[in-house]
């Protein structure tokens, strides 16, 4: 009887070990770090002519170098981000990903490296009109959102009474506000700051220093892979201590 119980316990332990990913070992052996990113979110990760750039890409390149590996970018989209990541198409996912409980149910997150939050982006003449959720959440206010991410979730939950239009992707959604086809796009504070800088005196973020709903950004890590999470967390911690994290952020985020 004792031998049978011991055999079952050993079998279960071996099975559990076999199911636990070891991304750190795989990357160090293959010399490749596969990185998922939608590549449409300045200042974190943005694809330009087939090349990804931004805060996250600078940091992830340094992470890969610490493992003597090269980065291999895997293009995804916000609607397919979690599906591609949990399917094992990449080792880590980046790109200004908000840490949310639904995402946390499917994967691990690194420690936060940036504090962000939902911020209205409007025409500059309308800044005073849209200071609060209550001012936006009205049937006569035309809001726009891109599918698959936390922007859509916020629009459908916190702004359920507003007149919502979905725009297929994040690269051209800002033109909907400029061309007066929509009044408000609620995005993250960092993106609102970037777009306000790119479209000076046309688009303005509403109080990006005081978001409607604060949030933090992190990187997705495979579920149950606590060894890799510990390594990534330590990397980010050292980047903070050295000042390199702030330097990287300031390089891409307009002030």
From TrEMBL:
SMART domains to which the protein is assigned, alphabetical: PBPb
Superkingdom of this protein's organism: Bacteria
Domain Solute-binding protein family 3/N-terminal: 32-255
Signal peptide: 1-18
Coiled coil: none
Gene3D superfamilies linked: Periplasmic binding protein-like II
InterPro entries: Solute-binding_3/MltF_N
Name under which the protein is recorded: Transporter substrate-binding domain-containing protein
Organism: Uruburuella testudinis
Keyword annotations from UniProtKB, A to Z: Signal
Protein's UniProt keywords contain Signal: yes
């Amino acid at each position: 009887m004792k031998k049978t119980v011991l055999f079952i316990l050993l079998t279960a332990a071996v099975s559990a070990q076999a199911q636990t990913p070891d991304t750190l070992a795989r990357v160090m052996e293959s010399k490749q770090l596969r990185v998922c990113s939608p590549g449409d979110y300045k200042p974190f990760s943005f694809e330009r002519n087939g090349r990804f750039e931004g805060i996250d890409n600078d940091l992830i390149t340094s992470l890969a170098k610490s493992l003597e590996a090269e980065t291999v970018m895997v293009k995804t989209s916000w609607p397919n981000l979690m599906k591609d990541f949990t399917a094992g198409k990449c080792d880590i996912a980046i790109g200004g990903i908000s840490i949310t409980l639904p995402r946390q149910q499917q994967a691990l997150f690194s420690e936060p490296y940036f504090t962000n939050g939902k911020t209205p982006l409007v025409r500059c003449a309308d800044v005073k009109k849209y200071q609060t959720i209550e001012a936006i959440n009205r049937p006569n206010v035309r809001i726009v959102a891109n599918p698959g991410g936390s922007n859509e979730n916020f629009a459908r939950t916190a702004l359920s009474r507003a007149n919502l239009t979905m725009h297929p992707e994040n690269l051209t959604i800002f033109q909907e506000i400029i061309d007066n086809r929509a009044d408000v796009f609620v995005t993250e504070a960092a993106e609102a700051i970037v777009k306000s800088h790119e479209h000076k005196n046309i688009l303005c973020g509403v109080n990006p220093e005081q978001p409607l709903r604060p949030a933090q950004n992190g990187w997705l890590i495979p579920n149950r892979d606590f060894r890799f999470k510990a390594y990534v967390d330590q990397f980010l911690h050292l980047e903070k201590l050295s000042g390199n994290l702030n330097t990287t952020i300031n390089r891409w985020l307009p002030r």
